[in-house]
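ZP: hey, is the 2-acetamido-2-deoxy-beta-D-glucopyranose complex queued? I don't see it on the tracker
AM: it wasn't, my bad. submitting now with these inputs:
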Amino acid sequence: MRLGALLGTLLAFSSACLPSTFARSVTGDRVLVLVPAVEAALHEYSVFLDSLERRGFDVSVRAAANSSVVLHTDGDRLYDHVALLAPAAKRLGAALSVQDFIDFVDTGGNMLVAASAALSDFQRRLAVQFGVEFDKRGTAVIDHSHYLRTKAPSNHTIVAASRLSNIPAVLSPPLLADEHRAIYFEGIAHSYDSQIPLLAPLLTGSRSTYSGSPATAERPSSKSTQEQLSGRSLGLVSVFQSRSNARVVFAGSTALFSDALISAEHSANGPFVTDISQWAFQEKAVLREIAHRHHLASAASSSSSSEQPDHYRVANVISYEIDLSVYHDDKWHPYIADDVQFEATMLDPYLRLTLNHTQSADSDAVATYHGDIKLPDRYGTFTFSVNYKRTGLSSIDVQDTVAIWPLRHDEYPRFLSAAYPYYAGSFVMVAGFLALCAAWLWNTEPAPKSSKPKSS
Ligand SMILES: *[C@@H]1O[C@H](CO)[C@@H](O)[C@H](O)[C@H]1NC(C)=O
Ligand SMILES: *[C@@H]1O[C@H](CO)[C@@H](O)[C@H](O)[C@H]1NC(C)=O
Ligand SMILES: *[C@@H]1O[C@H](CO)[C@@H](O)[C@H](O)[C@H]1NC(C)=O
């Protein structure tokens, strides 16, 4: 009951810190939060956990050592989202393996992984699977210019990070616009594999940020080993979105989510934590294809319900349409962008065109993208696709296989301008033949002169 009272007093306080959005997740409400110890965590992360509950989640806070915690039973997910706030735990739940977590993400579960300087090998191995490599044991993120200023002497391990990647799908406009934001971060750095298109750094170090041992942090080490992470290559928070559109956030700091840093002076941790948890748990930037269709442009466009043809003739003009919606703030909205492209491919892309958008008349939550497309003058089996992948947004990959047939013999135009030399050639041939015949028929040999005397 003492806990209830505490949560009550924090409720008023937290609503001042965290923007109160009541977005619900698209994919489900069950959240598992794994922490070192339940009682302590309810105090330490009360603002964060409380904001999850107010957003409509069914939050289960469990000790990492609780051996009855499993992610799946009989192949079904028991939770829709997992937040790992127990970085030091060597084993999680019922001896869950790295593969269990990968299966969880493969089946559409989302994860929020928070690390700290005391990160276990298990969670390092988990992160490596997603292209995130946490720095060596015993290191921490240090910044001697940007740190949380407290009265007690500090060794500058609570850095004030501010270098956010411009990913509007994840970060809300006020946070991106705020020039003086300070996101307090105490924990471990990671390097992110920039070759992986599914992974994007969200918060990185500034020029004075580096990763090193806090024990030797009194003086900035004189540019020691080159393998040391620093600056922009030093990842603090990274976001990953799988091909199945499951989302994983890696944050090098559990303290990022703590009440202490959310309530620190000038802290932007509250809005930042809300943004990344809303993104991770599919409360925003969820893109969806409602329908798509194509038909001959000359066919009556009003009869849109008519079935799609499975073949066209070469160089037909077709009309292609796709309807897109995006989810945020508890509702589906029309998705408006200028970079949705249509492709027709047969091994190589033959066409790539940007579609125009119009507001759909049927529903105000749908934007319809439309294009009148002249098919290539080439027959074969083509794939019509809209493959739309943007950082932070769910990816869309719509494909139709359509045959393009050559024209039938009676479908060609009567005269082809390109063929005029041939027409001319055949007429010249006919004319020549007639001239030859005429010459042969009427060109009689001159009659021989009657030089012989008449015989009688
Ligand atoms: C362990 O987890 C189960 C559910 O997964 C829960 O019912 C139980 O209370 C937990 N035990 C402890 C000690 O927290
Ligand atoms: C320096 O940071 C480490 C790790 O965060 C901490 O354990 C230690 O107490 C700090 N030392 C001082 C002098 O603040
Ligand atoms: C989009 O609209 C412009 C201007 O109306 C037009 O020129 C273009 O062909 C359209 N794009 C497609 C793919 O239909």
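AM: back. Residues 38, 62-63, 66, 68-69 surround 2-acetamido-2-deoxy-beta-D-glucopyranose (ligand 1) (CB under 6 Å).
ZP: great, adding it to the tracker
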